[in-house]
Amino acid sequence: PHYDIEEISKSKPIFVTPLSDPKPVSEGKNIHLECRLEPMGDPTMRVEWFHNGRSVTVGSRFRTYYDFGFVALDIIHATSLDTGEYTVRATNHLGTAHTSAQVRVISHSDILTETQNEAALEQIQFLEDASRHRRVVGEDEVVMTAPQFTRPLHNIETIE
Q1: SS3 for 123?
Q2: Could you report the per-residue pLDDT of 93-139, keeping only the tens digit for each?
Q3: What's the Cα-to-Cα distance from 158 to each of 6, 36, 42, 154, rounded to whole Å?
Q4: Does the 5-109 domain belong in CATH 3.30.70.100?
Q5: What is the pTM of this model?
Q6: Which residues are in the Ig-like domain (predicted)?
Q7: What are the structural domain ranges in the chain?
Q8: Are the CB atoms for 83 and 3 separated by under 8 Å?
Q9: Is the dihedral of CA 90, 91, 94, 95 positive or negative?
């Protein structure tokens, strides 16, 4: 189809709502980035996503949307490798515009496992030390002798 471009779009791309930095997320969570782009309905408009300057490959973990000026990127099951700057670039016959956001994914290795208080750690280890609670249990010896009565027996009668 042939378009009369002057009638379709009279302005270069403008992000009327830019991307904003999402809150840091833990590994395995999803990330959603969105912005609004004008002019809407421009068939010559190309929208591209970049991560740290490299083109984002759309696939099972990266999904892009561009519809009626709504532009979005969903990152499914984020990993620490997804941390960085995401840029969306819009281009039509009159120009180019872009907007960016910083994404931070907290990896499981970012969880601190080293102690901040050595004295408290030593006290905890002392309290948890199982060796303090061990009892040495010797073998029971089996003695084959007749019982010895230490007190004399006396008669107990039961009245029913």
Answers
A1: helix
A2: 999 999 999 999 998 765 566 777 888 878 877 777 766 666 666 66
A3: 119, 98, 108, 13
A4: no
A5: 0.63
A6: 13-107
A7: 5-109
A8: no
A9: positive
